[in-house]
Amino acid sequence: MSLRRPYLMFLGTAPDQLAAKTAQGIVHWRPDWCLGQLRLPGCKADLGIKDMTIAEAEKAGVKTVIVGVANRGGLLDESWIPGLVEALERGMDLASGLHKRLSDVPALKAAADKLGRQLADVRHPTREFSVGNGKKRRGKRLLAVGTDCSIGKMYTTLALEAEMKRRGLKADFRATGQTGIFIAGDGVSIDAVVSDFVSGAVEWLSPENDADHWDLIEGQGSLFHASYAGVSLGLLHGAQPDALVMCHEPTRAHMRGLPHYKLPDLQACIDANIAAARLTNPNVKLVGFSINTSALDAAASERYLKETAVKFALPAVDPLRTGVGPIVDQLLL
């Protein structure tokens, strides 16, 4: 589906900054597409762009309102509906990456049908997939994995794509989540695929290619997250990765949304991901660490990256602070 631009980022009542990660990702990677944000009372997130009402968005020329919230369960709050209906009435389309379909909300469906507006539910695939077959396919593939969800796997693969293309290498970002799809323009939201077909969907997303071409596959969840490990495992098998990048946030005390589960030890997480990936690629290897050090000051960040690199004898970077050049260097060895 094609979305009309520019966008208004709808944050609703997002309870914290991480709950607005979909909108934040679009603003970071496609700032020219985003004219403003709409926050309802109680919203605790801020994208650092202009606040707008629906009426102001209409005057500014906004064409699509993006529901930019990523919440547990992918639900659409009832309090958001009046504002979204107003956007349709003022000539704008709606797009969302939530599990709850916009088209399943009666008020939105009725308004869109009456007014001829588009309701784009990018999380829901519009095609069917085969089950995975695990057959070796030409080309190279990197998958971002992690100790938790919402930890920087998408940012890492997008940064790798940008750096590799800057060097003239053949590389493409492959989106597996709603935010990545908004940024890339296509992809498959893996967590909305029926479980038997997850690995097959990833095989379809990353088909055979030139021997020197890298597909940079966005990871999802974590093998250690009780809620999302199934998606992570299907990605590992379907991606058939030659290389893994381990993503980590060192200040988290527990898995996101699961205070009774501590974050796994890095070595344990490496071992589990390598073991699972070897089912479809016995030659898979870890090529580095992408560390989200946003909660650390500059000195602490530098120290943690150095300690991790020394401990594991592999590059450790923060995509936003240091860039990902050392990991690209590792891929070219």
TrEMBL record:
Gene3D superfamilies: NAD(P)-binding Rossmann-like Domain, P-loop containing nucleotide triphosphate hydrolases
Pfam assignment, any one: DUF1611
Domain D-glutamate N-acetyltransferase-like N-terminal: 41-125
Residue ranges of the TM segments: none
InterPro entries, sorted: DgcN-like, DgcN-like_C, DgcN-like_N, P-loop_NTPase
Domain D-glutamate N-acetyltransferase-like C-terminal: 131-328
Top-level taxon: Bacteria
NCBIfam families documented for this protein: DgcN
Protein's UniProt name: EBNA-1 nuclear protein
Organism: Hypericibacter adhaerens
